[in-house]
Structure formats: structure tokens, C-alpha cells
Amino acid sequence: MFGGVVSTGTTEAMLRRKPLEVETAKGKSAVGLKRSLNLQDLILYGVGCSVGAGIYCLVGIGAEIAGPGIALSFLSCGVACVFTALAYAEFAARIPITGSAYSYAYVAFGEFCAWIIGWNLTLNYAFSASVVARSWGEYLAAFIRGLPVFQNNGVTLDWLTRMSLSLPVVPSSYTCSPLSTVIIGLCTLVLVTGAKESSRFNNAMTVLNLFILAFVVFAGIGSDTVDSDNLTPFLPEGLGGVAQGAGLVFFAFIGFDMVACLSEEVKNPERNMPLGIIGSLVVTTGIYLSVALVVIGMAPFDLLGGDVPIINALLANGCCTHEQQLSDEAYEQCLDQTCSPAVHPILLYGSRLVSFGSIFGLTTGTFTSLMGQPRIFYKMSQDGLFFKIFGKVNEKTQVPTAGIILTGVLCAALAALVQLEALANLISLGVLQVFTFVDVGVIIMRMRPTIDRQTAVSLIGDEASRDDFHQPPIPNVTVDASEESVWELLVSICRRFKGTSVSENGSKPVAACVIFTMSVVVLSMAHNKHWSVLVACVCMLLALVSAALLMVLPRSTPPDTFQCPCVPLIPLLGVACNGYMMGSLPLSSWIFSAIWLIAGVVIYFFYGMKNSALRQYDNETLSEESPLLLRETDNARRAPDRSISLPLVHPHSK
User: I need a labelling partner for 331 at 20 to 30 A (CA). Which of 289, 384, 456, 549 fits?
Assistant: First the structure.
């Protein structure tokens, strides 16, 4: 078992951190996850998780918000994710264990923040799987309706995806999707067979999906149906529409977090994790940008719809000319699968191929989200913060079978009952919050001292050594503002508050990161909601001052594994991009997110805090089966600059 020195107060319990030393020896009694995945598996998992509902549904919904500029929304998401992906890559190589951002937050921020991140990841994975499953049901129903046997008899099969609920408390317009539960059940059955078996299934589905999307791009370009008129005006809602569209589709980029979830099941994680994270992001961004431009260029975006936009784009050009697509009867004439004669037969029949092939693409999106969620639950359960049943690993398959099954049941219920539009913004907000924590986490980790385990243990019990960490007086720095730029002036002022070593940073990095993040979010809200210019100016000044302080604070030696370059600049750019998109999301998303977080806080205080593995620590015995979890004692807490991070020794190293 592992743990930390017991903190008697609630605040101390919430702030206890988990600096890690992961042992090279395997546990003698515990059954761990099996390392069986390679770099190709990681990239295909990341692509499979991302290229699902984001491309098959959100292209149409996003076009209604940003017009053709939704392509820029996808691109801006990809660029923003590059900064965060580099931060993820450093953490994944440095801490190659399952749990993704949850595990990273436990190291960088403490138990309560880790719980919040884990709870948000539940929102991201479980809800994303449900959203993609709902879309899968729509595409499968469209394919079934296109079969001749159903077309000739006029069978619509609406009950499969739009069954009305005859309940007094439910509006008559609300529908559920029984068909979407089928894919959840099938994916769950595959997942319980084991990680490597699951990867073969995912790889096959992802490759088929890529072939289908490649067909869409080449068919659209080759048939000369991409019309510049459909791309004009390119930004009907301006950059604000692009930002709002980016906030909507951002959850589709969760693929590289899925890759990070698999750290404990990857061969040579120090090398493969950074390559898998960045590789999957690059491939995903290229796919989104090319498909979005082609699909939107093929038909007016009001014909695309929000359910099956790719099929509608192919149908519209298979049945109608560009002029006919602009007529009042276009919806009835151009989206009829029985139209005759066809203007472009290859696109008409191609729409049926895509309706069938998209089933595989959406299967991978559902499958990978369902694979990631139980591993988050598994890690939280191992730390004592979540129910023990989720931490049990099947000895034969070496996967958390009970967690997979329970997650499948939960996601099936959500998929049947919750509609796509109701969740897309909420999931994106959750993803952005998680990514922001990871960016900030890299900054915090670089601005803490690292010492060896023996020294750390001795410092914790050494009262006399406290004097070694007293912060020296702040030097008096004279600034000649007339000779410096604004940025140089801010940096010079911030030098008043910096120490000469990392041990003197104390809480400055955390405070500066919080101020920077909140300032960017409020600045985005002020811009998108047309608040007072004064609010925007104040937020801009606070962001610049906090960024300048972080730039001049001392930093520890970078890890000897993959390093995020230009820290803290790169992570701050990630925070800025994430914060701007968070501020562009509607108020309703923030309200639902707050409700979700409140529910998580209740679970933490009533279950997680008292069952935390950090409470199990024995001062005289350090377990040989688990990572070392360390928390400063009251003596260390009284010296604010004695925050300790142990060096991270990588498991399974040869």
C-alpha cells in the first residue's frame, strides 16, 4: 500500500500531493496492467478516439455557428492542442502510469485537484462515448433506410433513433435512441478480452475509417463539386464565430489524452508516449481540416444538417446541381436517396458506402472512449478516491473487467437518453479545463526542487533543517521605465519578487498561473460578450504581469526524458488558447459544469477523502509493491518554500 503522512485538517487533506518514485521492481502480489501496446497502436488509438462524432456530426452543427469558418475552428483547435500535447508528452514520459491528467494533477497540485480532474475526465470519456454512440445510431439507421427493401416499402425505422417517451414529466419533443445502446454493448464485450486484443479491433476499425474519409475527400475534389460559392463568405460570424465553433468541437481532440491513459500498457513509454501523443494529434488535425473544407464546399451548410452532414453533402451533389441546391425545394429533392436520374452517380452510391463505412469510424470513437474511462476509474480506485470495485484487475486478461462493464452500463443509459447538442459544449468545457491543468502542471513541476528520496525523507523529520529554506530578503531593484519596453518593464518589476533558487519559489508559480488563467478566461468573455473595454484592459494587464513573473522565476533542471520546450512559454500559450475557448462557450455550459463539479465534490468529501490511500501511510514501513507517496509534515508546511518533488524513476526500464 502507499500513502502519505496523515493530515488532520480538511485543507491539509485536500492539498496533500503525491510526488512519485515508481519502483523498477514488479509488485510481488498485485496484478498490474500488461505492457503490450506499441507506437502504431498508440497513434491509431488517438486517431480512433478523435475522428468520430467530431467529423461525422459536428461539421454540420459547427457550420451553423461559424459557417465555412468551422474549418478554421478545427485548425485553431489543432494548433492550440500542440502546446498542450507537448505538456502531456513530458508528463507521460516522466510518469508512465495509467490515469492520464488525473495522475499528473496528483503530482503537481494535490489530492483535491486530482479528484476534480479525474471527475472531469469522467465527463469527457463517458459522455463522449455516449455522444458518439448516439451518432453511430443515426448513421446506421440512415444506412438501413437506404436499403432497397426498406425504401420500396416506405419503412423509416424512426423508433430506432427517435423513440418518444410517453412520460408525464418528459416533453413530447424529447426522444431516446435505443439503437445507440447496441454499439456500447458490443464495444464493452471486446474490451473485456484484453488490451492487445482490443488494439487489433481498434486498428482494423480505424484503418477502415481512414479509407472512408479519404474517399470523401477525393470524391469531392475529383467530381469537381467543391464550389467556392459554398465557402463564401468564409467567416460570416467573424473570428468570434470561429472561437465559438472551436469551443464546440474541441472535445473531438481528446484523442491524445486517451493515448496518455494507456501509459501503463505501453512498451518503452519514455519514447513511445511523446511520439504517440504528438503523432495522433498531427494526423487528427490534418483529417479534420481536409474533410471539413471538402464537405462544406460541396453543399450549402443549411443542407448539411446536424445528424449526417457527410452523407447529405454527397447526396446533395449526387442528386442535384449547385443551382438546384439553392432552390426552396432543395431539402426534399437533393436529399432523396431514390433520386433518378443521378447527376453524379458515384456520389449517390458513395453516400451509401459512407453511411456504411462511417459505422466503423464511429465505432472506434465509441470504443476508445470506453477504453479510456475504466482506466481513469482504475487509477482513482487504486488511490482510494473511488469505489474499490473499479480497481480490480482480471488476472487472465489483465484489464479492469468490473470497471469496463459498469462503465458500459452507464454509457449505454446516457447514449439512449441524452442528445448530442445538449452535451457537445459541456464536454468541450470539461476537456479544456483538464488540458489547462496539464499545462499549468508542467510549469509547477519545473519550478519545484527535485531531491533524492533519502534526502527527502530526512528533511521531513529534520526540524533544524528548516532554517536552510528561509527566504532571503527581496533585493531592491531600480527600474528606469523610460528606457524599457512595456514587457521589459514588467519583467524588471517581477524580478523584485523572484528568489535565487527554485526552493525559494514557494507558492508564487501557483498564484501566477491561477491569475493568468482566470484573466484569459474573463478576457475572452469580455471580447465575445462585448463587455466594457476597461474589464478587458485590466485582464490583459493581469495576464501580462503574471506571465512576466513566471518567465523570471527560477526553474529546476529539466527531466532526462522528453522535455516540453520553452517552459513556461509553451504551456502558457496552451493555457491562453484553452482559456480563450472556455470564455467563448455559452453560460449554460458553465452552469452544467458547475453542477457536475459540485456532485464530484460531494463524493470526494463523503467517500474519497476518508478512504484516500494517502491516509494509510506507515512512517516505519515503505511498501515494496507501490510508488512512494510523500506529503510534507506540519514542520515542512510551516516553511512555505519546502515543497518537495521526488525524481521520477521509470518503471520497467531495462
Answer: 289
- Report CA-CA distances (Å) from 573 to 71, 94, 326, 359, 518: 21, 21, 42, 36, 14
DSSP 497-534: G--SSGGG-TTHHHHHHHHHHHHHHHHHHHHHTT--HH
Residue identified by cell 496492467 is: 33
Q: Identify the DSSP state of 266.
A: B
* 196-202 LR contacts (CB < 8 Å, sep 24+): 196/34, 196/36, 196/37, 198/367, 198/371, 199/36, 199/37, 199/41, 199/44, 199/45, 201/367, 202/41, 202/44, 202/45, 202/48, 202/364, 202/367, 202/368, 202/371
> Rounded to a whole number, what is the distance in angstroms from the first to the last CA of the chain?
25
Q: What is the mean pLDDT of residues 159-183?
A: 73
Burial class (CB in 10 A: 0-12, 13-18, 19+), 57: buried
pLDDT digits (tens, 9 = 90+) for 242-293: 888 888 888 778 777 778 877 778 888 888 888 888 898 899 899 999 999 9
- Residue 160 pLDDT exceeds 80: no
From CA 91, how far away is CA 96, in angstroms rounded?
Answer: 8
Phi-psi region of 290 (alpha: psi -120 to 50; beta: other; left: phi over 0): alpha
SS3 450: strand
What is the structure's pLDDT at 626? 41
Can you tell me the distance from the alpha carbon of 547 to that of 558, in angstroms, rounded to the nearest whole number?
Answer: 20
With cut-offs at 50, 70 and 90, classify the pLDDT of residue 51.
confident
Please give the backbone phi and psi of residue 193, each rounded to the nearest 5 degrees, phi first. -80, -20
- 3-state DSSP call for residue 283? helix
Q: Residue 582, exposed/middle/buried by CB under 10 A (0-12, 13-18, 19+)?
A: buried
**Separation of alpha carbons 430 and 202, rounded Å:** 25
